[in-house]
Amino acid sequence: MKTPLSPDASKLADTAHVxxxxxxxxxKARIPWAANQYKQYFELKPQESTLRAELAAAVAxxxxxxxxxxxxxELKAKKSP
Length: 81
Known about the structure:
- The protein is an all-alpha fold.
- The protein has a domain at 11-65.
- 62% of the residues lie in helices and 0% in strands.
- Helix 2 runs antiparallel to helix 3 (32-44).
- The longest helix has 18 residues, at 48-65.
């Protein structure tokens, strides 16, 4: 059973089908923000692999920098007055 949230994978691979569907959604969009999101898909899809690689590199760098570092504490006796 297919639902609107789980489209057929072969249709997603067909760029003509995706383009036609998104153009239809752009025409029906009542909210300008939604129309812009659909339009951005066309701009960002060709860069998908590059963006995913940049994201993976950023995540790796963040994990590397966020590793805990050992701390050394030294207690010194203080004379009270």
